[in-house]
Amino acid sequence: MEPITVKDLRFRISIPAEEIKKRIAELAAQISSDLKGRNPLFLAVLNGSFMFAADLMRGITTPCEISFVRLSSYTGTESTGTVHELIGLNEDLTGRTVVIIEDIVDSGLTMRELLSMLKTKNPADVRIASLLVKPGNLKVKLDIPYCCFHIPNDFIVGYGLDYDGYGRNLPDIYTLVKE
Ligand code: 5GP
Ligand code: MG
Questions:
Q1: How far is the CA of 123 from the centre of ligand 2 (A)?
Q2: Do the strands 9-15 and 173-176 form a parallel or antiparallel pair, or are they unpaired?
Q3: Residue 123 located in a structural domain
Q4: Residue 76 — very low, low, confident or very high, per pLDDT cuts 50/70/90?
Q5: Which is deepest, 1, 54, 73, 126, by most CB within 10 Å?
Q6: Whose CA is nearest to atom 9 of ligand 1?
């Protein structure tokens, strides 16, 4: 398959759309069965998870709610480095089963931070569903019960993930070509 150009870099297909679709359907069936009757609240982390969230939710067969949140970054003090603020969460999490829908877990630092923010809101249970995980880059211990694909430590775009704002619309997942 010929590489494509996104902005100024070359990428080649690593996970075709058909394979993504099939794996998401399996994951949705597993989540539906695990959380049957628990009225889960799905929280999709924008922007990267928008396509994954849309396809995953089509396969969820137990009554549930979905909401969309965003983590905005700002530079904290020198000692705290980059700090995130959680935007868009209007639901009461008390006693709820929450499923975070994320595009990719890389170092895991973002997920660890989000988990600790959500746990202050007294949910019954918080689980991570991530389209992609790079196990070789994980810097913190994280339980990721729902993951579609483990991938190597290469930069990827497509299916919601961007390179400098571009490539989110691509239906397949692409890996950077190292030249
Ligand atoms: P972490 O905190 O786990 O290191 O980073 C997670 C975030 O980094 C993801 O939500 C995503 O926005 C970004 N990220 C990590 N790896 C990649 C990648 O290969 N491609 C793209 N487009 N974003 C990535
Ligand atoms: Mg993300």
A1: 21
A2: antiparallel
A3: yes
A4: low
A5: 126
A6: 104
Convert the pLDDT of each residue in 106-131 to its tens digit: 999 999 999 999 999 999 999 999 99
- Determine contact, residues 36/60, Cβ cutoff 8 Å: no
State the pLDDT confidence band at 169, using cuts at 50, 70 and 90: very high
Q: Ligand 1: which residues within 6 Å by Cβ?
A: 48, 103-110, 155-157, 161-162
Residues 6+ apart with CB under 8 A from 54: none
Tell whether the model's pLDDT for residue 31 goes beyond 70: yes
Residue 132 Rama label (left phi>0; alpha psi -120 to 50; beta):
beta
Q: Look up residue 78 and give its two tokens.
A: 């020198």
- Sign of the dihedral defined by the CA atoms of residues 154, 3, 163, 60, in that order: negative
Pairing of strands 9-15, 41-46: unpaired
121 in any annotated domain: yes
Active site residues: 106
Residue 124 within a domain: yes
Compute the distance from residue 114 Cα to the ligand 1 centre, in Å.
14
Question: Do residues 174 and 16 make contact, with C-beta atoms less than 8 angstroms apart?
Answer: no
Number of domains in the chain: 1
Which ligand number lies closest to the CA of residue 48?
A: 2
The CATH number of the domain holding residue 140 is 3.40.50.2020
